[in-house]
Amino acid sequence: MTLHSPVIRATLAVLVLSLTACGKKPAEAPAPKAAVIESVDQKVSYGIGFNIGSGLARDRALAVDQAALFAGVSDGLAKAETRVKEADLEAAFQAMQQKMTAALAAEGEKQLAEGQAYLAQNKAKPGVTVTASGLQYELLATGTGAKPKETDTVKVHYHGMLTNGTVFDSSVQRGEPVEFPLTRVISGWTEALQLMSVGDKWKLTIPAGLAYGSQPKGDIPPNSVLIFEVELLGIQ
């Protein structure tokens, strides 16, 4: 089986190449020189490296060995022979994929239990309304404008948090509201915004089933309850 086999290509899409598990240990990578990032090629090269590093940093199941990672990149760019047998690489990728799957499942179970406890506590607070779907909301400011329909495009400001207060996305922090069709957002938003009037500002507490469910989304763990402060600015 070659490094270009479907199994390896599929695994690369999830893990990126890591040479830490099997075979001969690569030589320690020398300390990198101060990078010169001026030309278009240099900027693109830096951007590729930064994106790979950022993606790897988000994956808590993968302990990245930087020396091995740099050795793999260096060997690949030099079109050198791989230092690890292809069979060992495939076995390492499969082992890591199993580890990541198990870690994701454990994180999902933890978030599900914590989310259910949070929803139960939050719905008992004064001013919180719970809809038939399980969506929870409370009014922060009241407007007098029209209510959007499901087929409408709306303009909103929002501030999104996890139940522990971690901010994962915020148009307020960026200083720029967003526009989107109601059919292209999570179902909790689609439901809530049709209940709001232009000028309303609500706090939404959205169960995982009305958000991203058991799938992680960027910095959002699986089965996460999401909290949004949403201000409906207009209907386009």
UniProtKB/TrEMBL annotation:
Catalytic EC class: isomerase
Reaction it catalyzes: [protein]-peptidylproline (omega=180) = [protein]-peptidylproline (omega=0)
EC number of the protein: 5.2.1.8
Keyword Isomerase: yes
PPIase FKBP-type domain location: 151-236
GO biological process: protein folding
GO MF: peptidyl-prolyl cis-trans isomerase activity
Keyword vocabulary terms for this entry: Isomerase, Rotamase
Domain of life from the UniProt record: Bacteria
One family name in Pfam for this protein: FKBP_N
InterPro entries membership: PPIase_dom_sf (IPR046357), PPIase_FKBP_dom (IPR001179), PPIase_FKBP_N (IPR000774), PPIase_FKBP_N_sf (IPR036944)
PANTHER family recorded: FKBP-TYPE 22 KDA PEPTIDYL-PROLYL CIS-TRANS ISOMERASE, FKBP-TYPE PEPTIDYL-PROLYL CIS-TRANS ISOMERASE FKPA
Family membership noted in the UniProt record: Belongs to the FKBP-type PPIase family.
Protein's recorded name: Peptidyl-prolyl cis-trans isomerase
Native organism taxonomy: Bacteria, Pseudomonadati, Verrucomicrobiota, Opitutia, Opitutales
